[in-house]
User: Fold these one by one.
Assistant:
Number 1:
Amino acid sequence: MRESTIMQIQYVTAVFAIGLVTLHLLMQGVLVPYGDALMFQKVLSLYKDAVNGALLEILLIVVLAHGFNGLRIILLEWRQTAGWTKGVNRTALFAALVTMAYGTRTVILAATGQVS
Amino acid sequence: MGRKELELKVQRFDPSVEKAPRFQRYAVPLKDGMTVLDALLYAKERLDHGIAIRFSCRMASCGSCGMKVNGRPVLACETQVADLGSSTVTVRPMDNFAIVRDLVVDLGSFFSKHAGIAPHLERKGDLQEQESPSGEYLIRPDELDSFVQFTYCIKCGLCSSACPTSSTDSLFPGPQALAQAHRFVEDPRDEANEERLDLVDKEHGVWRCHFAGTCSAVCPKGVDPALGIQLLKRHVMAARSPSRRKKAKGGGGARVFPNPNKDLVKSP
């Protein structure tokens, strides 16, 4: 993938992350009182709401794509050997995909009531 | 009452025999209109012949005397001692370059990076015209305005010295090379845009600029390399966007691959 394509993704995910995090925080107040937002059962109930569950999944993908690419950029500027560049590119992609899969699994399990 | 004196602190370092740089102090009599280069040359001619300095034109035209004066990358020949507002002037070599000796740095990698972006006009379709020119490639004044400021670069290296990315990423082309890439991409007479954009659209290319803007702040010629780099990013994005490329080919909107042949004026 060209670096310009990756950076396009970086900029788009940055804009989306601002909007989605804002929406996420607003929805915390709509669905449950802010004071209870981090209580275990309340968090589970957020996942069971279809709209909020979808929002959390999209937020997960957007933030992970943005975050891991940001980390990749920092590491690329740290060292400049060809092996390091290739290794960082592959590791960042792999780590993002694994984390995304694990996060998605959590969203699905919580949304389908398999976590109690 | 004695004459006013300037305390000149010069970083001395010969990497072939010394392990670490040291500072040497010189008392230089102040004169009206004295520049830092004047002070250094006074010290070199009368106090210590061993100070290594690179200089030539003494009029901010050749870009040879780039160095750090009181912590800021400047051309020594155009920096007035009186403007520094200090009786002590500390002179060090530019950052982000290997030191050859004292204030002289190795600009080899800097020029290699400049050469790496193919800093020349390239024509593809009219070899006959290039071998036997029958006219000039003319451009409109507004087209010239779009890149003329980037042609003022004197390759002094001050921008790269001030660039935070250049200090960490040795493969980053640097503000000078990237601004020059933009200069040639913007030039309607050039036909190698796609290849040049490929050269900078890499892991260690144009995207590693974080727009700190220090390059533009220290540029002695007002080139504004940071602006050139942001415009170059826009060129790369436009070239990679199918809709923008199609629009450009249709003759409207973004000029991604300009066709300069229409401007070829034949002699009567």
Number 2:
Amino acid sequence: MLDVLTGFVGELRAAGLPVSLTESIDAAEAVHHIPLEDRQALKYALAATLVKSSAHWKAFETAFEVYFSMRGPQYDIDGADAPGAPGGETGEGTGDAGAQGRGGGGEGLSPEELAEMLFRAVLAANDAQVGALARQAVTRYAGMEPGRPVGGTYYLYRTLRNLDLDRLLERLMHTVRADAPEGVLTPLEERLARDEFQARLGRLRRELEDEIRRRLVADRGTEALARSLRTPLPEEIDFMHATRDELASLRRAIHPLTRKLAVRLARKRRHGRKGPLDFRSTVRHSLSTGGVPVDPKFRYPRPAKPEIIVIADISGSVAAFARFTLHLVHAISSQFSKVRSFAFIDGIDEVTRFFEGVEDVTEAVHRINTEADVVWVDGHSDYGHALTAFWDRWGEEITPRASVLLLGDARNNYHASQAWVVQEIRHRARHVYWLNPEPRAYWGTGDSIVGEYGVHCDDVFECRNLRQLECFVAELE
Amino acid sequence: MSAPGAQGAEEEAHRRDVPGPLGFPDPGPPLFASVADVRQRLADVGYLADDGIAGVVHLADRLAKPVLVEGPAGTGKTELAKSVARVTGARLIRLQCYEGLDESKALYEWNYKKQLLRIQAQRVVEEDDGAPGRQAPGTAGGGRPEPGSWRDLEEDIFSEEFLLARPLLEAIRSTEPVVLLVDEVDRVELETEALLLEVLSEYQVSIPELGTVRAEQIPLVFLTSNNTRELSEALKRRCLYLHLDYPSLERERDIVLARVPGVSEELADQVARIVRSLRTLELKKYPSVSETLDWARTLVVLGVESIDAEQARATLHVLLKYRSDLERAAKELAVAGEDRT
């Protein structure tokens, strides 16, 4: 048991979760108090002791499912002995047999019959049947071959393409509409029915994922799979390579992040009590002790609220990154005396107005993408022209209190760099920072000229995920 | 791995020696028989726990560890602690956290006024007697020290009699079972969190003048956090972690049924489904469980049997608290413009 547990903790650590020694001791203690045959109970017990952040739950769940999948659904390990290394031979056999056995029933269905049964099962919300059909569908459509080195997403994609869930959804909706009195649904009913079916289809999708994972584990063994299935934690998702789902989860993650940052920045301001000696006040207060300055008084520091000027490349290659940064900076704009944003591709435009009076930053970003005048010639990044245009129109307005953030990968399509603008900005502004969403190793390769700009900046940061972005903003004072 | 979980008479015997052989505090006799028992008994007082919640509460009792409950506002974090207190028949002691909370509000404080009175009284007694003497009328309470003896006086004014127990100390000193609720722990500063650590891991409070106060019995501790900032590693490490998210459709419906008197099953189902749809939208603030309950109550009071677009529009402001959210919800759920009845 202990070996299994330490193996699991190792797996979690490898997935990037911070698990301390005391926490794993707690986990070992916790499993004494729950019935080991109860898989759910075990999962929650381990989660409660090992995972201390909701953002890490998904990573934990994947690790748990993979790691304990070999040990069969009944989890047949008794407390006394520890059955060898994770993913041992015995486990592999049973897992494989189980998968085969479960997939066995109803082998001879035609695709139409399968689709029809699935349709009925989803309509009736028959979870058990949906599960069985999901296994069936994986057998039929995923075309899984032993030892083939592709990820689970590939199989999932193949299965989903064959099942065509969108059409299934339309068919379900159609049935509901037909069943309604007078054959019409009110928009509200329509919406509710759609959400209901989406939820059921979501469950089906999860069943499919589980089934595919079970089979992959049976094929390759736990350890190999755990490595390939490791999902990045939300704060470590790369902006540049995020999938649509990941982008959605990033958007959700950024909201609490901005709140946390705002709180932290405000607190720092209130509690930084290290001011210089206030001589006048000290003398004034010393009168009550007969002129002896017993209690020295200090000046409260009044940290300047910096002005922020964000100049963001919003061309296709870095759009997602720029969006998050704009999002973040504007969400915490109460911490800065003034935030001005500029967006460019090859032309440049001030976009501050889109954020004014708008409660919803997503909306503002959308309007920037559609309304702002950022294209000059052909809509390919031209940093040189954008920067000179910026300097001509707004250069005068940069004050010594301003911090300038330049966002972009500095991939200039081999145009002139006009790096002198950055140098001029540096002379006027308090700080100039460049945030680059590309990995440091790629800087200066191809048409990337971040180096040319970088020499004129105070610092150039690699900023590929939320964590790095958060670190940067927290230091920005 | 030796098992302090082994039960029996031996457990009773060293119940008072709080840190067990491995540093695990001894939890005492179990409050709950099993996870299912937790669920059942919580349901009896109207708190519908899912597997995760029940499992963590059970573990908290068995491991004698505090539970850190995190999640969006209005998902029943505080309610969980209250319900557990009700189920176990324990007294609920609540420490509401806020920025600027300090030792004297959380742990204990010396009753300065009473101490001053005590010293004054001493002086009065001495002056009355004229000279150091023995007899004195019973003006000041407690054991009478030798007049003039500073040490006795000091021992006297730093005794339990002059100690004002604040929630944490109170929970530790209580002889009857206690549920301690540390509410919104994310509101205190990072440094203040440290105050909690000794209480949470050792169940003891060190008072320099008095020594260490050990727990008579291990209180069940719940800390809640709205996640406005990251709590320190040290605190998290000492706790079991429970994330309370918005409930599933079925659970929400059951909660509405359990908590709103006079609600029909059909209405509860509709309410839960509309709320779920709302939570899939991108809103500034998602409707919480307590707001769902408010909405269901509103509908019951209005005598609504089944919700149509018109009623939904008229009462949506119970659920959503931002104008932009209301507009978006009305647009998305198509309950806005065209009236179709």
